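Researcher: We're teaching a course module on how sequence relates to structure. For the next exercise, students receive a sequence and then see the predicted structure as tokens, so they can try to spot secondary structure elements on their own. Here is the exercise chain.
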Amino acid sequence: MTDLAAARRAKLGRATIGDQLRRHAQHTPDKEAIVYYGPDGSRSVISYEQLNAQVNRAADALARLGVSRGDVVAVMSRNSVDYMTIWFAALKLGAALTGLNFTFTETEISYQVNHAQPRVLMAEDVFCARIEAARATGSLASVEHFLYSSAEAAPPEGWLAFSALVAGGDTAEPDADVNEDDVAMLVYTSGTTAFPKGVLISHRNYLISTTPAWTQALDLGPRVVWLFVMPFFTIAGLGSMTNIVNCGATIVLAHTIDPAAAIRIIAAEKVSYMAQTPTFFLAMTTEPEFRDADLTALQRCITYGGTVPSHMITTWQEASPGITWGTYWGQSELSQLGTVGWFSSLADIPGGAASWIGKPVPQLEIRVVDDDGADTEVGELICRSPSVMLGYLNDTERTAEAFRDGWLHTEDIVRIDSDGNLFFVDRKKDMIKTGGMNVSSVEVERTLYGHDALLEVAVVGLPDDYWSEAVSAFVVAKPGRTVEPDQIIEHCRSSLASYKVPKTVRVLEALPKDTQGKILKRQLRKEHA
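Model: And here is the predicted structure for the students to work with:
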């Protein structure tokens, strides 16, 4: 190693996420880092100086438990100050963090823990029994210490109280050899037909690419007050929180939040930014408090991960005309980097196409290619960027498949126009092959949302002896409205070619969703096949 390379790896010139937190504590010590609404509804404020000191105490405690560079720390918890604290503490020691979905069963917990091999696992009190059940099967052998996150209750036997460990830690900055190429996040993708993949993301991915992209393309800076509703175990959650802290902004964090609570907090805290799936924004409009709430502080609302119904935008426009909407596309494999487009009204969207996902951020290079790798107007989106993941943990075959030909293959089908605008067509796995024709489930969903009685919709292909896959729609009616399947099919016939029209429509009370509000199409396929 050259002297220059050694110097850059040392504190003199390195770029790590924990270092940036320390700088904020030095430059803006009294700036609000976190406004936290706890499980009991209590409100507390933590400054950047206080957060950094708490993180350093936690890092000291983890180091005394044996955590060091290259280790993994696992967390199963709802969003909390403890979660943020252990995240930055692990980073300051050169360890990586993996978040467990708090809806996981013992089997799912065992898979991720046994795959990630964490040395320490922290769990919120209400999830400890599930961890213990997984442990009783002989799993979780890599875990040497179980940490208990609770505001009040004492830890069960064999667990250590995280709050007590932090209280006994040293506030001095950890003296750890951390490299910008070290793994910071180990994020697990949603499993469909195979086990979830562990995406390896480095400090460098965020500090030289994703965070700068957010400052440029999302106008994120210290003045922003961000209502945080995305779970930390996802890339959207952990990644967005990291970007917000890297930029020195304020996070308004709630331990548990629903659409009604979000409305109240926006008004109370003068929230200026928030991001969530369309289903969450749509649910907010159905709350009784929505019409009379003061939402005028909101400047930017970013949505991702689903079809945006036009009536959602128009309803929000009536309540808060000053909002600028952001449509965002990103991937775990790109460290959350992607494309963004801004609009104030539906008239601002190129071509009026609800499938618009904007243009690539400055740090992202893209192509749209066909199955032979030739550039095309409609095809798979492939990418290059400093934000590209290091690879999949212990999976060289799938890493090579994703990285073939020197590009990251996203498996998302898009359309690109002459101005470089991108329009989402569908996930490759969600394209429906029916009677020898390809149908975009997203296109059919947009047509369904044009029916004024429908609140939520999802379209999948279900096995069919004649069609191979039958276009199948699942719909939820708006409160007080009733719909008949034949009416919905007739509505689709007026806008879609016959082969795209749903063969069946099923009216449900609710659609299955994950913790972010994304509709679980795989569950619909499984339950209704």
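Model: If you want an answer key for the exercise: The chain has 16 helices and 26 strands. Residues 373 and 405 are 9 Å apart (CA to CA).
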